[in-house]
Amino acid sequence: MDFRFTPEQEEWREEVRGVIESLITPELRAEMESNDDVGPGPAGKEFMRALGSRGLLGIPWPTKYGGLGRSLIDQYIFSEEIGRVGGLYTSSTAVNMVGPTIMRVGTEEQIDEWLPKIRSGEVEFALGYTEPGAGTDLASLETRAVEDGDEFVINGQKMFTSAAHFSSHIWLLARTDVDAPKHRGLSAFLLPMDAPGITVRPLWRMDDGRTNEVFFEDVRIPRANLIGEANRGWYHVAMALDFERVSLGGRYAGLLKRMNSLVAYANETVVDGQRLSQDSYIRSRFADLGIKLEVVRLFSYRTAWMIDQDHVPNYESSAQKIIATDLIQEIADFGVELLGMHGQLTPESPHARLDGELEQAYRSGIFLRFGGGANEVQRDIIARRGLGMPR
Question: Which of 27, 154, 198, 373 is the most exposed place for a label (fewest CB within 10 A)?
Fold first, then answer.
């Protein structure tokens, strides 16, 4: 077992780092710093298209689907370099979830239609899963898709639908058989967000970020937009969620950047005649967080290796999701504690430390524990599938 990157992987890192840095224009940086949560602007969309033209939106995709045919570890290296810059939007839902699912269960026509659009950065997807009465128990959803000739008619409501206000399409889970057991009567669809009958309304999170509720009223889509077998959508979505949880490992670089900022602050800040970094409690907390940060990275590469070996990281992806999102919150909690009262100041305050990012991170980290499946549910999955415990 060798934990070192190969020379080829190090060369790949340098290559993608150079490409990313060459594509960051003043206009893109201004969009990154605006943090207004409206999705990619003109510069961000151009950045996506530029990545797509270089094959960087299909790094681990097989070459027969237009990808680079590289390993998922190479994809993680790319994700780390994106995270090192921070604030860049990279269409992860389309590239890491929808695309791989279409490859596995889509028809040849769907593969030919959708994969080039995803690979080029032309389309982006919101996730239409959660409903007012179906969150953790997603299989209880009530949005209906009724077959009508060569079409399906969609009626219902989704909520906490991030990216619905700027995505071109939505990856939707809807009920197609009301008589089947709840897990077996669901189907997956692709819907254009500009289809007649779709209404998007904003929901504002406690961190001031935007999510949405989406209403479907007699929305008609062609049968060709059914992905995979009818009434097998639960299994297709479960597979996609595994890929989503694995993709959280790409947050490592952003976490490392925040940790380094806090370490620098502790080294530079003097209280009662000594640096904060000389305090034994603070040093101990930093050590614990440093250990956990390394665990996140190693777990990320382990699950990437599993997928490269054609294994499905089922309970492993749940473990990775827990480790990454818990650490995001833990670093934010400690950062606010370290900064004291200054840690509660927003970026707009002239007295805010570290640009006020800790206050926002403290609030935003909480919802990540719920998105993609609540961490409590992930722990139950680990107990059942990983440890063989009964329900």
Answer: 27
Tell me whether residue 113 is one of the annotated catalytic residues. Answer: no
pTM of the model: 0.88
* Residue 149 reports pLDDT greater than 90: yes
| Residues found in the chain | 391
**Could you tell me which of 59, 53, 51 has the C-alpha nearest to residue 9?**
59
The pairing of strands 274-275 and 270-271 is antiparallel
Domain end residue (candidates: 194, 211, 231): 231
Sign for the CA dihedral angle at 104, 109, 112, 113 comes to negative
Residue 2 lies in a domain: no
Q: Are residues 251 and 364 in the same domain?
A: yes
Written as one string, the DSSP assignment of 328-345 is HHHHHHHHHHHHGGGGG-
Query: What's the average model confidence in pLDDT over 57-66?
Result: 93
How many distinct helices (H) and strands (E) make up the chain? 13, 10
Q: Are 56 and 96 in contact (CB under 8 A)?
A: no
What are 159's strand-pairing partners? Answer: 213
Handedness of CA 75, 35, 203, 165 (dihedral sign): negative
**Domain that residue 382 falls in:** 238-386
From CA 162, how far away is CA 230, in angstroms rounded? Answer: 25
Q: Please check whether residue 236 is in contact with residue 105, taking contact to mean a CB–CB distance below 8 angstroms.
A: yes
pLDDT at 187 over 70: yes
Among 31, 80, 244, 359, the one annotated catalytic: 244
With beta carbons less than 8 A apart as the criterion, state whether 296 and 324 touch: yes
